[in-house]
Design goal:
GO molecular function: heme binding; iron ion binding; monooxygenase activity; oxidoreductase activity, acting on paired donors, with incorporation or reduction of molecular oxygen
Order of helices and strands: HHHHHH
Helix content: 55-70%
Structural class: mainly alpha
Keywords: Iron, Metal-binding
Pfam families: p450 (PF00067)
InterPro entries: Cyt_P450, Cyt_P450_sf, Cytochrome_P450_monoxygenase
Strand content: under 5%
Radius of gyration: 19 Å
Shape: extended
Family: Belongs to the cytochrome P450 family.
Length: about 120
């Protein structure tokens, strides 16, 4: 990750106008509008589960005050299940459990923290 002892530019942090297009080109097709539209059914399916979980956990609380609600955390959980459905054709159970299944999110965050020191 540090060829010749120097940090390597990543696609998201590259500011050099010559390097950024070269890093972007191999993956740009995955972000074209036609590709993104083809993902919509997966997002819709997971969105239904997301709404059902939020309603069951936070809106239909008949016993009194609903539990605290961290919308940012739930959006991240939703995102991981969408990505699981797109990548593996199965949601990974984040929404159903309402948790970081097998500490996947924490592990990724830890990897980002460790690799940030070797990238720009």
């Amino acid at each position: 990750m540090k060829p010749r002892g120097k940090p390597t530019s990543g696609i998201f942090a590259a500011q050099d106008e010559a390097i950024h297009p070269a890093l972007k080109k191999p993956v740009s097709g995955a972000y074209s509008m036609s590709t993104l539209v083809s993902f919509e059914p997966y997002v819709d399916t997971t969105m239904r589960v997301f709404c059902d979980q939020l309603e069951a956990r936070f809106a239909k609380n008949e016993g009194g005050k609903p539990p605290p609600f961290d919308f940012g955390q739930w959006l991240q959980i939703f995102s991981f299940d969408v990505i699981g459905d797109l990548t593996f054709s199965i949601r990974l159970g984040f929404l159903e459990s309402g948790t970081d299944v097998d500490h996947v999110m924490a592990s990724i965050w830890n990897t980002f923290r460790q690799t940030s020191v070797v990238s720009r």
